[in-house]
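Many introductory courses stop at the sequence. We go one step further.
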Amino acid sequence: MPAQSSHPVAAVLRGFARYALVAAFAGVFAIFAAIAPSFLSGANLLSVLVNNFTLLAIVAIAMTFAVSAGGIDLSVGTAIDFSSFAFVSLVLAGQPVPLAILGGLAGGILVGLFNALLISGIGISPFLATLGTLFVGRSAQQLLTNGGNPVYLPPSGIPEAFRLLGHGTIAGVPAPLVIAFGIIVVAWLILARTRFGRVNLATGIQASVVRYSGLALPRYTAATYVLVSLIAAVAGLIVTSTVTVYIPSSGNAFLLNAIGATFIGTTLDPNGRPNIPGTVLGVLLLSIVANGLLLSGLNFYWQQVATGLLIFTVLAIGFANRKAGARA
C-alpha cells in the first residue's frame, strides 16, 4: 500500500527533474527580457541564433553522439581547425570551391579516423585518446603555420559560392542557421530512428551487452567518432566562410560549452541520457545567457562565471530531483 501511494510523488519529482532545463530556460529568458530592454528585439534574437547558437549547436550535436556512446570527444576543436586549414590551403592553391569544401570535410574526418584508430583499434579510452589528439593536433597546427600564424584568404580570392555559407541566406533565412537546423534534424533521426542510433545509445548504457549480442562494437564506435569529426568539420567550414581566415587552435573555443550543453541536455531525458532536443535547448540556454549578460554590461570574465554556475545549477537540480524521484 505505501508503495502505491508513493507513485504520484515519484512521478512529480521525475517530471520536475526532466523539465528543470525548460524551467531554467524560461526563467533566464524572462530575467533578461526584464533587465535588458533590447533583449527582445527581433534583431537581437536573430543575432543570438546566428552568432551564438549556430556554431555551438553544430559542435554540441557532434559531442552528443560521442557522449551518447558512453565516451567524449575532446578533439572536436581540432576537427574544426583541420577542416578550416584544409579548405584555406586548397583555395590558396587555386582549387575550385567544391574540391576545397570536400578537402575541408576530409580534414575533419582525418581527426575522426585517428580517434577511431586509437579507441577502436588500440583500445585507448575515449577521454585519453581524444585528449592526445587535441595535443597532437595543436602541435601540428603550430608546425604547419610557422608557430601559429593566421592564414588569411585574400578578399579577391574568396569564392562567392563559399562566402554564402557564412553570410548568405536560404529562402530569407541565414544559411548558417539553415545548415545548423538541418544537422539537428538529421542527427535526431539518426539517434532516434536508425539501427546505428540504437546501438550508439545502447553502447552508452551498457557496452558489454552490445558486445555480447554479437554486434561489431568497434566498428560502431569507430563510425561514431568519424561522424563526430565530420559534423565538427561542417562548423569549421562555416567559421572560415564567416571570418575568411584560419586561426590555429581557434576551434577549441567551442569545446567546453559544447560539453556543457550536451550534459545540460541530459536533464531533459527521464533516464539522464544524451538526446538531441536536450542538447539544442542547452545550447539555446547558454546562447541566451551569453547574449543577456553582454547586454547587461558584465565583462567577459563574469560571463564565464555566470555560465559555469548556471551549468552546475541545472545539472545539480536535474540529477538531485531524478535521484529523489527514483527513491520515492
